[in-house]
Amino acid sequence: MTISESTWLTFGAGSEGLLLQEHHRPYTFFSDLSLDQQKPQMIAFIGEQTKSQVLRKTRFGCRPQKGIRGEVQLRIDFETISDPEPVFFADCELHNPSRPMTIATQNFGDVMSRALAFPRDFDSKFLAYQIYLKLISPFSTVICLFADDLGGMPGVLDIMATWLTSLPESSTDLPIPTYPKVLIFKDTGATPEWEDGATKKFLLALSKETAGRQGETPRKKELDVLLAKQFSGVHVLSLPILTSSQRNWTPLRDRLLQESRDVQKLRQNHQVEFSIRHFKAFFHMAIRHFCLNKDTGFSFIEASRAPNPVSEDILVHLTAFLQNVDRKQLLNFAVPVVASALVFDSYPPGMHAFDPLLVFRKFFYQTCLKIDPYKYPQLTKGIETAFCQYAIAVVDSSNEELIHKNILSRFKNEWEDIYSNTTCFCCMARRPENTMSCRHTMCDECTISLGEELESHAWTFLIPSCIFCGKANSKNFSLKPRTAGVRSIIAEGGGIKGIIPLSFVKELETAIALPTNIHEHFDLAFGSSSGALVILGLFANKWSVDECLTHFQELSQLIFRKRVHFGRKFPALGYLSRVIEGILSIAADSRYSSAGINNALQKAFGTDSSLFAADSGVKIGVIATTTDDCSTCIFANYNGQEARSDSCGYRIVRPEDKRKELFVWQAARASSAAPPYFRPFAGYQDGGLGGHNNPINLAIWEQDKIWNRSKKQPDIVLSLGTGFMQTAKEEAEENSQRISFFNSRCVPRLFASFLNFFVGESRWRELCNTLAPHMRDRYHRLNVEFLGSEPALDDIQVIPGLRQQVQWQASANDEVQQCADNLLACLFYIELNGVPIFDRSTFVCQARILCRLGPSSNGLQVLAARLRNSRARFHLDFHRSVFATDADMLIDIEAGKPFSKDIIFRVRSLTDPLDIKIDGIVSRPRSISNCPYVIETLIKDQGLDCAFGRRGVKRNNVFSNERFPKRIRRVE
């Protein structure tokens, strides 16, 4: 192993001051180890020349290491590489720089630079010894100090006294008996043996030095307290003569290994013996903690939950559950259910098996006290006891899903009347998203953990029977792949003009030219007023486009039927009949009958279909406004991962009482209650009255809340209009100069401004003004321009003409085809096979390109054949491309296997973006889903950064071992 391969820590200089640089290159030797089975022990050697000679003599270092000065190097003892507990050793000379610090301009390749939040008057030598104490020591079993290299015994005395007095508390939360031992080596020429006298003499001097620095009288007891906070023992050891034969050094090597094994055994007993994967992950987090110069010590238990923190809403969810439990059942029912849920959340696959009592006290004890209704913490104590019991069972069996399901299913009778749309009772940590046939609900993470993924369709999960009541469940739950982008469709309102969006969807379906249902091409669907009817028909009822066109026209006929007064319609009396109808409409508060629209919607959408229980494969949002203050509301079949701020300008309607959830027809009725045509419904009215007749902004805002997208752009946004009238600039100027007296009055002007609320084209143009040019082609607007007067919202006679106008519009430009191309490209997305591996100067990434259409879709085989016939390629960068499919892939797809294209590529840094494009089946190369994709973000989205596991990560991603297959070692 060369110097460049073992360099681990160095100092650097940057604009922010002194930097600590972590080099990932030493981790490459991990590829020859079992990351999850082997549990390393690390010996730290701190010194200079004598230290280097001892390393060679004890066979830890087989050859001289040049350039070690100013570095910490990480190496492995090759004699123990196959042992269950291999020995790593840290060769430490960070305190001994030999050259000016490198100037770090950015994190590049395998080097991660972090600014040190220490005062600028701290020199690098002092910081080096702080790094040894706070960063190297917690991961070490033995720390070796070489007196001859560190200024003799007085120098070692100064180092130890500084360590003990500069850190009043322990640097970590590891159990005290597991702290490393300190071995101080003197070159006395004697045979290697423990020198009790020298050790006592040194400890006496150390006691005086520490007491003097603290202004106290030296006491052995005080020194023991200080030592116990950092180390499990201090010994002074004599070195053999450096020129002596190898056999004189073998006992010293044996002693070092035995001392290390003794500490490692204690760590095993206290459940803090970490695997190689966890060792690496903890060290990354410990570096971040050290660089921030925090007053608190590094907590291994807290760090294990850093990528997967305990829910901030856990108190809310636990309280919601207990409100459904009779007080008499708290101890017998609530205690085991809550304890099991907390264990299920705390010990996902991949989590280190910390002492359950420590875990509970760290994360849940105070929370449980807040929900404990008893004068004495009886409930909390019961949960704590059950938590420890279940956690031990989980660690012993490694099947936490089965244990949790068995505990929940013990209470089938109790679950019969307990339901919630706001709390997932499986984990008590998140809001539910998926409703089973029995009306019990679960969050996405629990669905993935406890469900069975269908072979015929990736990211579709089946739970055969309810985990709560045990009743059969016939529903499958389709989730958006974590690494796929968001495809949104938005339909604005406009009465009978809602036929325009539907007609454009029909044209789009023709342009896609696949035997698929339109709902297979979208993840998010929002609609307002008549647009809500379109969205609910296509995505809640899953009508085909042709079926939806037929139902829409039938609904229009039923909804906009003349009102019957006194048992009959008024005869046609021209102007007089319109006046009479107007007077009666004012008296009835609507032009059309509420009973008529209610009956029509119930016939179309059913009377008892809950919107929240609608298929969660597409997230549906129906827009309405309240009658009291015209605030915007969203009726949805989802909750979303993030809570909305009270000041966000809208709210999701989600009643705490599940019995108050709106049915699909009720959501449609509320959204389409446009005055003066229809009366309000249950305190809600037309969604356009709040300024969101075109709810495109709501859809964009909501994608962040649903999938935690962090403002990342969607794959595609399709906005469907209901027509607009364009006034030429010259005509507008002319009209402004000859405005009539009546139109210049305040009431007409206010009315005109009010009508502008409903102009969806204005909202579209406002959005376009905020888009960066390179993002503009992700957004599509399909609309028609009215050359004459705009049709009335209830004029059903114009429906055929509007459909024909859409056909002309679609044939006159290529916007529909561009949208279809974008949707075809977004069918493909990327997944990594494992964490990228650093190899020489780049990271090697193994991945596969997958397709949103599974084997169960009628369109996959047609799409694969089209890829083959057009010789379509995936372009990995400007220089490399691969065929999208081949003969073998076609055979596999015909045999019922999913689309999967293996690819291998290299990146110089994990912060590099990856932009895979596809050609052949589209008019020009287009980026596949979620691209450009920063590799670091891809790793996080896929859950590969969670070395300690988390719920919601598919099983085939959990323990991906970072090993180089032989065929990849040769990839350039």
Automatic annotation (TrEMBL):
Query: Which stretch carries the motif DGA/G?
Result: 686-688
| Domain of life per record | Eukaryota
State the Gene Ontology terms under molecular function.
calcium-independent phospholipase A2 activity
Q: What keywords sit in the KW lines? A: Hydrolase, Lipid degradation, Lipid metabolism
Respond yes or no to whether keyword Hydrolase is given for this record.
yes
Task: Please list the residue ranges annotated as the PNPLA domain.
Answer: 489-700
Q: What is this protein called?
A: PNPLA domain-containing protein
Q: Active site: which residues?
A: 529, 686
Q: Which organism is it from?
A: Sclerotinia nivalis
Q: Set out the biological process GO terms recorded for this chain's protein.
A: arachidonate metabolic process; glycerolipid metabolic process; lipid catabolic process
Q: Name one GO cellular component term.
A: membrane
* Motif residue range(s): GXGXXG: 493-498
Q: Where is this motif: GXSXG?
A: 527-531
Instruction: List the PROSITE patterns.
Output: PNPLA
* InterPro entries linked to this entry: Acyl_Trfase/lysoPLipase, PNPLA_dom
